[in-house]
Amino acid sequence: MSVWFITGISRGLGRALAEAALRRGHIVVGTTRSGESDLAAADGALRTVALDVGVPEHAAAAVAAAHEFAGRIDVVVNNAGYGLLGAIEETSPAEAEHVFDVNFFGALGVVRAALPVLRAQRSGHIVNISSIAALAPGAGSGLYAAAKAALGGMSEALEQEVAPLGIKVTAVEPGQFRTDFLSGHSRRNTATAIDDYAATSGSVTALEGKDGKQFGDPARAAEVILDAVADPEPPMHLVLGADALDRTRANADRLLGDLRRWEAASAATAFPA
Ligand SMILES: NC(=O)c1ccc[n+]([C@@H]2O[C@H](COP(=O)([O-])OP(=O)(O)OC[C@H]3O[C@@H](n4cnc5c(N)ncnc54)[C@H](OP(=O)(O)O)[C@@H]3O)[C@@H](O)[C@H]2O)c1
């Protein structure tokens, strides 16, 4: 039995993760913005605490409440987040800042609040829910991709810093999953639309039409995440969904192609011996 701290259990993947963890007999401390949850759980198995991850300084109180309730924290899942659709030029500074506040600085706040607990325990696992957009960004969600890529980059460095302290880190990169992610309840669109981007960003903002039709099942994704955490050698990156696998491979091939094509020039940039 482990203690899971999961942000954003009101809906979608976070809720599926909380349900799966509870089914496996774990204790869940889940956050919602209201501090309330209608999840069913055995007595003492679930505690809900209030957290708007867009206010990172509030993370300390939520993590402290979890620690006080359960006496330890084994798994920290930074799940709360939302997508912003629109071209880079269409994105206002305030829209860009907010998507980073929630998707990157929100997670960073939770990580910073949880690390003293995990370091004292000399154990724990931080799971950052990133996105396929971080590994294979596309037109129309550049600032969301940038925030998730920041989360992935931070996760890779963090993994090297905390591995000697007994703490593991995994970045999860889901493709399209059937949650509220693309619904008007969650997704945001930039207030500005520029005609010149109709064929690129504009066609991606049409993703809204896929709401409710994504083939990824969040309950199955949650089970895979729990399996990965239970694995003695958990992955640094966990790509979820056949679409995400395809996009990751295509982007990796493109990167390797660029390396090969420019290898000689790239290697010839050192001072002469
Ligand atoms: N579904 C996908 O296709 C997909 C693909 C790649 C990555 N992801 C990532 O997966 C994670 C979960 O998303 P989802 O698909 O489950 O979407 P969702 O159904 O829209 O759920 C989003 C969750 O995040 C919470 N949240 C959003 N902003 C918040 C804030 N400022 N403070 C606290 N909680 C906040 C929501 O809480 P409220 O109920 O209070 O709004 C909700 O619990 C996100 O990080 C998302 O970027 C999803």
Automatic annotation (TrEMBL):
Which part of the chain is the Ketoreductase domain? 2-175
Keyword annotations: Oxidoreductase
User: A GO molecular function for this record?
Assistant: oxidoreductase activity
Q: Does the keyword Iron apply?
A: no
UniProt keyword Oxidoreductase, yes or no: yes
Q: Which domain of life is it from?
A: Bacteria
Report the family membership.
Belongs to the short-chain dehydrogenases/reductases (SDR) family.
**Name recorded for this polypeptide:** NAD(P)-dependent dehydrogenase (Short-subunit alcohol dehydrogenase family)
* Species whose genome carries this gene: Saccharopolyspora gloriosae
Organism placement in taxonomy: Bacteria, Bacillati, Actinomycetota, Actinomycetes, Pseudonocardiales
